[in-house]
Amino acid sequence: MSTPARRRLMRDFKRLQEDPPAGVSGAPTDNNIMLWNAVIFGPHDTPFEDGTFKLTIEFTEEYPNKPPTVRFVSKMFHPNVYADGSICLDILQNRWSPTYDVSAILTSIQSLLHDPNPNSPANNEAAQLYRENRREYEKKVAAIVQESWNDDEDDDDVDNDENA
Amino acid sequence: MDSEDEMNYDEEEEDSQEEDSNDEDFVDIAMEPEPSTASDSRETEDFQYEVLTADKIVHVMVECIKEVNAVVQIPATITRILLNHFRWDKEKLMERYYDGDQDSLFSEAHVVSPYRKDPRQKRSTRGSTSASTSESMCEICCLVIPHTDMAGLECGHKFCFQCWTDYLTSKIINEGMGQTISCAAYGCDILVDDVTVMDLIKDAKVRLKYQHLITNSFVECNRLLRWCPAPDCGHVIKVKHYDVKPVRCTCGHTFCFACGENWHDPVKCIWLKRWIKKCDDDSETSNWIAANTKECPKCHVIIEKDGGCNHMVCKNQNCKADFCWVCLGPWEPHGSSWYNCNKFDEDEAKKARDSQEKSRCQLQRYLFYCNRYMNHMQSLKFENKLYQAVKLKMEEMQQHSMSWIEVQFLKVAVDVLCSCRQTLMYTYVFAFYLSKNNQSIIFEDNQKDLEHATEQLSEYLERDITSELLVDIKQKVQDKYRYCESRRKVLLDHVHEGYERDTWDYQDGL
């Protein structure tokens, strides 16, 4: 079944493969093009460096007129990410434009890791530490970077189990 | 709006496209209506106002745009966006237009300055790129589309018709945006003008919603206009100057122009607003709680007494305090000799009782005024039935050798009854916020007098009217309603005089 949203998502996928932006990757799930898995690698020179953060992106048939729902699956400690992993980012809400695509969304989230906005905090603790105690903030972030690797191992384990 | 409007819009579009090619100063108004006859000038005393139908509003809007355009000479679509930016304040727009930096004015209003580019390339929404046959990719659907099937604003971002239509439809229908839809490109804040929207949207439902949103924003921003608040009434009242006055719509609804509520003389808009809020919210529920419950003196959980024993044991598992319901002091010293509760006069207990007494008193006061207010409101609703009864009676009387003109007094009497009830209803709101002074005593006397007379009139009309002595009752009813009307006037004049001389004191914090 091809709808404008699905057609556009195919294009997004193709574009992402042909011209992959640095430090992000994403692909539709096996049997549902409306649901994507993505990974953002923590940007260099930030406390998030070397982290591998997984996300899900959920589209509706109204895409690209409506933004998708993007959510961190990996544990996150960031001023603009809620406890459930959902992200407070203007381009995913009121500043959404239909010219945005998946690669633009992922690179925007990547730059959000680089540049948090502590003035609209989704995670109060993170915002406060970011402002007042940068060392403690970096310590907490380092912990979730570690955890993001464990996620991989867990998944690998699961895969191995399944293979066995 | 009906199908005629639709047709009319379409005609206009064609006109505007023809004019496109040769005329810089054309007035490309997408929403010009037929001249409507359905406006209605009214006047009460010295307060002048007009009732406008939906398409007449569009006409007023177009007039406003034309008036500005006659001076500033830019495309009407831009004028409309500028006017909306200044909340339809023509003077303010003119002032900025000629005083300051025009470029910053245009960018502030999110339009591309009409002076900035070649007039040949204006309004290239459709068919204007006939020379070029090339194709390019639409940034939204990522399909390669011929240029002839793409559209864009002056900002230069072009998308295919289908994507534009989907984008605009989603903004209009889902987000209820009209005047404030911007270009679909990321970060581009140039606003989509009404001609472009009308060109691109073909679905009648969406067009209608868009037109409604546009007129709505026009009416809402304009101090001299107000929608009739009656359900499903699409009329607008236009006044010569803003004032707190009653206006009557063609649908029959009478309301206060300043606040949109039913006409509420003698109480002022702000007090009525507070009253309605008070009635709607649960502030009195909390008063009830204060009057009928107590707080545990230790853990402050709220307790309702459900048995006769005054020895209270707090059921909060973390508290379990023993205390006396009457004095709220600890239970221990009471022991078995409770009936001689020696803790009664202790300061703390007294304070608790005082505050409880106060909220109980406030609740009583509110209920007193609210009951009377509600009662008149309820009666007012019943008077509709009375109109029916009276109509039958009037027909019956006409068969008993009375002429049509001779029985009209009955209808007048019900009219008077209704206006008295309405006035009385709002006098209780006024009184609720009023502090006692000499004037307020006079006011209460006036109120009592009007209340009394109104009830008598009501009784005549509801009961005595069924008796056979019609001539007798005519005299009685006429005397009574004249008296009521004069008392009503006296009461209102007295309140207004008080406003002028500033003799009313208000109770704050209610």
UniProtKB/TrEMBL annotation, chain A:
InterPro entries: Ub_conjugating_enzyme, UBC, UBQ-conjugating_AS, UBQ-conjugating_enzyme/RWD. It is an enzyme of class 2 (transferase). One of its GO terms (biological process) is DNA repair. It holds the Pfam family UQ_con. Belongs to the ubiquitin-conjugating enzyme family. Residues 149-164 have a biased composition (Acidic residues). PANTHER family: UBIQUITIN-CONJUGATING ENZYME E2. Coiled coil: none annotated. This is E2 ubiquitin-conjugating enzyme. Its EC number is 2.3.2.23. Keywords: ATP-binding, Nucleotide-binding, Transferase, Ubl conjugation pathway. Residues 4-150 form the UBC core domain. GO terms for molecular function: ATP binding; ubiquitin conjugating enzyme activity. Residues 145-164 are annotated as: Disordered. The active site is at C88.
From TrEMBL, chain B:
It comes from the Eukaryota. CDD domains: BRcat_RBR_HHARI-like (cd20343), Rcat_RBR_HHARI-like (cd20356), RING-HC_RBR_HHARI (cd16626). Pfam families: Ariadne (PF19422), IBR (PF01485), IBR_1 (PF22191), UBA_ARI1 (PF21235). Residues 134-345, 138-183 form the RING-type domain. The keyword Metal-binding applies. Keywords: Metal-binding, Repeat, Transferase, Ubl conjugation pathway, Zinc, Zinc-finger. It comes from Dreissena polymorpha (Zebra mussel). This is RBR-type E3 ubiquitin transferase.
